[in-house]
Amino acid sequence: MNRINTTFAALAEKNEKALVGFVTAGDPDIDRSRAITSAMCRNGVDILELGVPFSDPTADGPVIQRSSQRALEHNTTLATVLEMTADLRKTSQVPVILFSYYNPIYAYGIARFYDDARAAGADGVLVVDLPPEESGELTGGWNGDDFALIRLIAPTTPADRIATIANDATGFLYVVSMTGVTGSSGLDTSHLGDFCARIRKTSTLPLCVGFGISTPEDVAAVAKTADGVVIGSAFERLIEEHIDNPDIVNVLARQTAVYKAATRPADG
What we know:
The protein is an alpha/beta fold. 44% of the residues lie in helices and 15% in strands. The chain is built from twelve helices and eight strands. Strand 7, helix 10 and strand 8 form a beta-alpha-beta unit. It is globular, with a radius of gyration of 17 Å.
């Protein structure tokens, strides 16, 4: 059983939901990014999404776009992200999902990416702009089930398409809570129960909901329906707001703990 499956099984035993935390690797700089991700893993993140900075992150809102730009200004590459993953793996067994656009992976080398990502201790990848029909080039040489391909499902995805996407996914499904880009405001959880029920008709994978989640109240509301809650822009906004704060690592650590508390049952 890989780390992702083990994590969800352990959380289910405790009646907890997964806190999935996203940050862009190399933001605000490589050294502080290492310290931030390590602190987040120590303080409650159940799965870490480590963003590979990209010059044209079209699916992301302005907060994450700016985080990518800061990381690129500090010469963060896919190789850097893999080095950070290997370094984190020395002290933590929290699953690491590499969050990337396809271009950096293609430029790095597809077979080389798979081998190096596994060697570094990454547990899977989410490629934002790679649909199932075009994934064979990436996954054709993968062996075993210890490296997951995480897939996105949007509210506008029709039922037959949900089945196609879910059939091609492993690890968990990233359920987009709303249309738009990351960091969009106005979270509405009223439709999530029905949406997740539709997906569960075609897949037994855990469902992790993201986009627009920024408060502990948001986390608690989503956790009533989903198996995990994804927070990205809110973490990156904290980094941006505290970029000159010498206590930035502890700021992220404390907020991680607050979010994690909201994934636990109210009586626990």
